[in-house]
């Protein structure tokens, strides 16, 4: 076995320069809390810390690190970074997943350990449970359902941790509702319910809890500011008062999940419970200095928090641009954006994927007109709403890479990705089995190339090829390793969406590589909601439709709304644009016109930033 590196000899992978507090946080032996702003390298710090723990033997074989993120793509991104930093062999002891996937994996394995009345055999994951839960309350206790002042019944069902106290009447009803729902054949459960039940499994089965605690020596918590009450209770049940060491990273200015139940004062609670040492980071590695000054200005004025971010010395002091643009209507706006973007794209100065257009909600209000005009001038843009989720799912991404290998034998990246996926789902293999897997995979793709890359495929051939690839990967192993695919429905749904899109593109272009580019959005400007921009970064970010008071009314908006705006803004590396129109047609509101009643509010705030550039077409 490879020797561990001595702690005093360890240096960050890729010789990455890090600020002092980050170095200290990596080497901290106790629990820690790293609170830091956007672009401060929180995710990078977790990847480096994992590398440190695995390479120095602080996390000794066979112990593992568990990293919990909120979104599937964030979990994948962290896993990839660790693999890159310390290689596949060590990274096999780094489990990176979402809270939901983690609890579901325990639930699927141990749900027979639930107490009588709560046992679940087969079940379905259903994210839309509001009506079913309300119906369950009604059928268990109609009077309670109609009169009890418990607020949202869907939330109320999972508001209490098990075991429920028998003395309180309202809680007795809660227990009855749970039993009623779980009695149904193949009951539907949402992730909150699954997590509460998993928590219960661990409470009543100390052996299961012990297995978990023996497996993981270190727990990483990414985006910790968004942790909900249910998740925090679950985390405590799993690991609090165990030898596991906690590292939480987050940013209180990036709390955007208030609507989804983010726990209040989560940092204080966690610090009290774990006695975590704080490590504040101040560097912002992502954005140019002028953008950081703008972010600091908004942190101070809008979020009313101390603004401490400093730029890295990789930038010149005046680099970065913040521009506000005023137009009489959306036609002038889109023409201006077309002119600007054409200029930026000229001679490949900027890739389309490095520009992002953001709207608050309802991309369909804004994107069709932009996409239409851009496409007339040879610029591709697309609404990412449907495809974004798909492209963060490991199995469709694997299939896309595998197709690329069938149609282009020279793609080293596709081969790396495909093989990494196969290694991951065959984690238990010994070295000689891995070698054999490599040989078999090379042969599989050689054969697939001979059989399928020899003329245009019809839809039957296309589906056959996808089926062959899925069979080669072994769907059972895929399901075993990705809890979200276990019940098969979600997997079917995303695969159907993917193959439909891909087949359409292939039929249009006759070229699989072009179709794959279209699927991945290569050479395409993404249009998305500000929520979806979380965790991403772009050279240029354009906020469209800021005059819409539904978008942004900062005087009346809540902290999470302000935070969401701030998070989206902090995705920009070098340039940010805000556009306002005096009038704008709103297609889905009966073709009406929206007037700019929000314009006076936010524009004042942005306008007062001393380094703002203005483009004004309103006479
Ligand atoms: N020490 C470093 N040196 C140079 N670049 C870095 C360093 N740490 C991070 N970066 C780069 O800065 C950017 C932001 O890093 P990262 O995504 O880790 O930050 P974050 O704090 O998790 O961001 P956010 O909370 O805004 O999503 C990335 O492009 C990353 O590669």
TrEMBL record:
> What are the UvrD-like helicase ATP-binding domain coordinates in residue numbering?
15-288
Fetch the Gene3D superfamilies from UniProt. P-loop containing nucleotide triphosphate hydrolases
SUPFAM superfamilies registered for this protein in UniProt: P-loop containing nucleoside triphosphate hydrolases
Q: What class of enzyme is it?
A: isomerase
Gene Ontology BP terms: recombinational repair
Residues bound to ATP are 36-43
Q: Does the keyword Glycosyltransferase apply?
A: no
Q: Name one GO molecular function term.
A: ATP hydrolysis activity
Key word Ion transport present: no
Could you tell me the EC number(s) of this protein?
5.6.2.4
Q: Which reaction does it catalyse?
A: Couples ATP hydrolysis with the unwinding of duplex DNA by translocating in the 3'-5' direction; ATP + H2O = ADP + phosphate + H(+)
Instruction: Kindly list the GO CC terms recorded for this protein.
Output: cytosol
Q: Which InterPro entries match?
A: DNA_helicase_UvrD-like_C, DNA_helicase_UvrD/REP, P-loop_NTPase, UvrD-like_ATP-bd
Keywords for the protein's UniProt record, in alphabetical order: ATP-binding, Helicase, Hydrolase, Isomerase, Nucleotide-binding
Name of the featured protein: DNA 3'-5' helicase
